[in-house]
Fold:
Amino acid sequence: MTNNILDNIDLRTLGELLQQARKKCGMTQSDAAKVIDVARTTMVAIEKGERRLKATELIKLARAYGRSVSEFVRPRPVVQPFEMQFRAAYQRREGEEAQIEPTIRLLEEFCRNYLELEEIMDAPLPQNYPPEYEVTNMPIKAAAESIAIAERQRLGLGDSPISRLRDILEQDVGLRIFYLEMPQKYSGVYSYDEKLGGCIAINANHPEERRRWSLAHEYLHFLAHRRKPVLDFEGQYQRIPESERLADTFPKYFLMPTSSLLKRFNDIYRSHGKFTPTHLFTLAHYYGVSVEALVYRLEEMELVPSGTWERLRDRGIKVRKVQQELGLEEIPQRTDITTRHYQLLAIEALDRGLITEGRFADFLLVDRLEARRIAEKLREHSSGMMEEASDFNLI
Structure:
């Protein structure tokens, strides 16, 4: 029976699972090769999906990794490999490809895991997708603001600041969003698959204000260029295409609506008789954007003089230091790789006995010790939510 499964299993997927399990238990490829009495190069080929495993070899490796064989051969959702989509869309130099390919592979793995968790729990992520916006021949700024207004209305956001952007785009739209470590020059990755829907990775190494901006940027790609995979990084274009100019323009209207920003500016001016650099910092904090992004937006609206940001920068103003002096707390950091909804699906599957502790750790990409710590934290969170719901007679 095991032989039949191995004859039909996707070798690349099996290789990835074996590699993850090996690393989790701290074994090298040489260590694993000794377990099944092969050369290290053979183990490399197995983990790349280039060499088929024998049933006896899989049993030995599973035992060495402290896993059950079923964890490696269970049916998994089949999706089109992300890196093939990106390779077809982008001609990259070998060095660039080596830099970003691990991120693309990791995004694909997390998205497939997300779908698998949904199937295990019979709880698909609701997709509240709008039709793709038509922007052909529309002026960039008009198209960006029009889409921003339409989406805010569709999602019931009004013109207020969006404090929980990541949660809203996941839970109210149905996008799969992950914060992954990338080289500094990359800001985000967007892909679309018919089974998975819209999938986004944001650079976890960037400040929260920039991550929010990048997330809005990738959201525009989903809204207007849904089926085109996108890698966003500095210096990638000699001539910026319209699709990127639209995505660059959208966040300022989506995160700082004209009506709201104008009202806030006028309120400040009426109250104080002037608009000072201090107000720039408080207003940027209010919208959860960088001071630079806010200043350029106000310059465009002709509310502050052109060149304001350059003058502030030339004066050597340290943004974070000023924010601390003004008592402005940092924008809440959402540094988890996965969203809370993804984590809660995983802990519920574990507590119901539908997945093993090892698989739970794989879903969160951590070792078992860290998985136990996260599990306890998630159980406390779930328990707190249940108590709060009970207090309000919701259950």
Observations:
- The longest strand covers residues 186-193.
- The mean pLDDT is 86.
- DSSP finds 20 helices and four strands in the chain.
- The radius of gyration is 24 Å.
